[in-house]
Amino acid sequence: MNKNLNYEDIIHGIDNKLLLQTTERPDSNGALSRNKEGYFSVRFQMGMSKLADIAIRNKRTDALQEYIKTLEYAFDHQNPDGSYKLILPKNVTNVPAIDAPTKGDSVSAIAFFGYSLGISLNAIEESGWFVNKNDIPQIKHDLESYRSNIDKTLTYLMDHENILRQTDADAPNRLLFDAIAFYTLGKYTGNTKAQSLGIDFLNLALSSTNREEGYFIENGGWDSSYNGVAVKLGLELFSILPATHSSKDLLARRLACATKWQESRILASGEISTDGNTRVYPGGESFLGTEKEVDVEKTIRTFYYSSILTDNKKYKKLAAGVLDYYR
Q1: For the chain, what percentages of helix, strand and coil (3-state, to nearest 5) are there?
Q2: Which domain of life is it from (predicted)?
Q3: Measured between alpha carbons, how far is residue 154 from residues 28, 135, 174 in Å?
Q4: 291 SS3 class
Q5: Measuring CA to CA, which residue among 117, 177, 122 is closest to residue 298?
Q6: Which residues of the chain have pLDDT under 70?
Q7: Exposed, middle or buried, 20 (CB in 10 Å: 0-12/13-18/19+)?
Q8: How far apart are CA 34 and CA 32, in angstroms?
Q9: DSSP result, 217-255
Q10: Alpha carbons within 13 A on the beta-carbon side of 80
Q11: What is the phi-psi region of residue 270: left when phi exceeds 0, alpha when psi lies from -120 to 50, beta otherwise?
Q12: Which residue of 44, 177, 261, 278 has the lowest C-beta tally within 10 Å?
């Protein structure tokens, strides 16, 4: 796995049509996903990182402007302590089968947002196109104006790291969201303690792999949806870490095994098999009252990233096969 390639390199390796088709546009307020029906949770702003990917990949100022709008919307709902408002809609509170959110759920929601915030801010800041573009002073000013909000977000997550350790212990994909949130926000703000926390969470995730078959252990077994999520996140972190970082060799080995296992779950048709899954399968877990479906895009990104980082065209072919099946 090439240690010298960075996040921008792997973003350029994604099928551009896929990137454009899977990126949600914010509404006029900057809201994304379920927040468009009225603010619900900051976790539903996660799609903003794809806007940053589009901006960098296609050198699009309009995507950056929309990205700024999504940040503004999120920070408008931030509390003084760095947390974010949670306003449950009636279609959630009136359903007995949907459990009330716990403190762990609330902190995890902010960690999901922190992942998207951190990875996108670093990608933008390190983009040669953005750095050398001199005709967007307002965008650059706006990004700088949010430094206090970003600092408060990171401080809140650091103050609640033990809750994340407990809540996400059995879900390595979530530990990797946490790892990237801490590491990238720490990198962006110059907080070395946060970066070290990111590596701690990475190591927790890597300890939750099946050594014989390679997959990330979710809920005590394998899951072809969440393994795809975990590998995608791990490859992103691999591209973000410095080339000489001491964690990269172990990370590369575990990701190679987990990617190989994910490949074994792809049927000849391109479908991602859910046989034997512990979480996502017909009759499996639900989220806010809706049964979860396989997170296809994460597996596709896993294979595109792998194609670039290993210079192996078979992964690009695998990505195309999965994409064709679910198109």
Answers
A1: 60, 5, 35
A2: Bacteria
A3: 27, 30, 17
A4: strand
A5: 177
A6: 93-98
A7: middle
A8: 6
A9: -BTTB--HHHHHHHHHHHHHHHHHS-TT-TTHHHHHHHH
A10: 0
A11: left
A12: 278
Burial of 107 from C-beta contacts in 10 A (0-12 / 13-18 / 19+): buried
Tokens representing 153 are 């977000």
Could you report the per-residue pLDDT of 157-205, keeping only the tens digit for each?
A: 999 999 999 999 999 999 999 999 999 999 999 999 999 999 999 999 9
Separation between Cα atoms, residue 110 and residue 270, nearest integer Å: 34
**C-alpha to C-alpha distances, 93 to 77, 86, 87, 98, 100, nearest whole angstrom:** 20, 12, 10, 8, 8
Q: Please give the domain boundaries of the chain with CATH numbers for all domains.
A: 7-87+101-326 (1.50.10.10)
pLDDT tens-digit series, residues 94-125? 666 567 788 999 999 999 999 999 999 999 99
Radius of gyration of the chain (CA): 19
pLDDT score at 96 = 64
Q: Is 313 helix (H, G, I), strand (E, B) or coil?
A: helix
pLDDT at 68 (0 to 100): 97
Q: What is the pTM of this model?
A: 0.96
